[in-house]
Amino acid sequence: MDEETEKLPIVTHLDELRKTLLWSLVGLLAGVIVAVFFVNPVLAFLTRPIGGMQNLYAIEVTETMSVYMRVALLGGLIIALPWITYQLLSFVGKGLKINERKGIFIALPFAVLLFIAGVAFAYFVMLPTSLAFFQEILDVTTSIRLKSYIGFATNLLFWIGISFQLPLIFFVLTKVGLVNPKMLLKGWRVAIILIAVLAAVITPTGDPINMLIFMLPLSVLYLLSILLSALAVKPAKTEGKE
Asked: 93: Cβ–Cβ under 8 A, 6 or more apart, which residues?
């Protein structure tokens, strides 16, 4: 940590945090404005696994508007996510050394890639298997409501996309000095339990098959987290030798 940063009073840190949150909110607002123009294509994309919008129905007068705004807000959040992440990392980075800041900002593009990978996994694997499970659990004709389906699909895609940030989170935590590779290796049993709990919370169905589908990639991501943690701690060791 820089000496100048250490000497800053708490009021200054709170002011910096306020500015960070304000700029993040501005980015979110801009993202929502952009997302409004793409709601219909996004809805067409989201409803493709169910056969399109024609297979859904609405029973409330305001239901279509609430779904429209939900998709716009979530789309805006996804659009603004790189900007919001940049703002938060900038705030945290002020208390780090120069090489630590570089490592964190290099990781920023990977946050976007990991989120996209998580959303793709949820859309092409988790969503179809979950829909099949719900529709085939009983031998009855299922009429799916628009609000219910969009809430189900967006929650699944967003939270699994967020969960794919696990390697990046541990990379940043290692840079800050809160964790290290040995700690992650020793805690693999606890990690498996936490992954199982997370799978049970995020996975829309309670069956073990869907939980396993989610647990396998997340377990691989945990192993990748250990590797990235080792890469993050390596520069610090090299610096200490110099």
From this structure: 100, 101, 104, 105
Residue type, 127: L
Q: What is the pLDDT of residues 40-81, one digit of tens each?
A: 999 999 999 888 898 898 888 889 999 999 999 999 998 998
Domain positions in the chain: 3-233
Query: CA–CA separation, 103 vs 98, rounded Å?
Result: 9
> What is the per-residue pLDDT across 158-175, written as a single tens digit (0 to 9) for each?
888 888 888 888 887 887
Q: Comparing C-alpha atoms, which of 229, 138, 224 is closest to residue 178?
A: 229
Q: Quickly list DSSP for the chain.
A: --HHHHHS-HHHHHHHHHHHHHHHHHHHHHHHHHHHTTHHHHHHHHTGGGT-GGGEE--STTHHHHHHHHHHHHHHHHHHHHHHHHHHHHHHHTTS-HHHHHHHHHTHHHHHHHHHHHHHHIIIIIHHHHHHHHHHSSSS--PEEHHHHHHHHHHHHHHHHHHTTHHHHHHHHHHHTS--HHHHHHTHHHHHHHHHHHHHHHSSS-SHHHHHHHHHHHHHHHHHHHHHHHHHHHHHHHHHH-
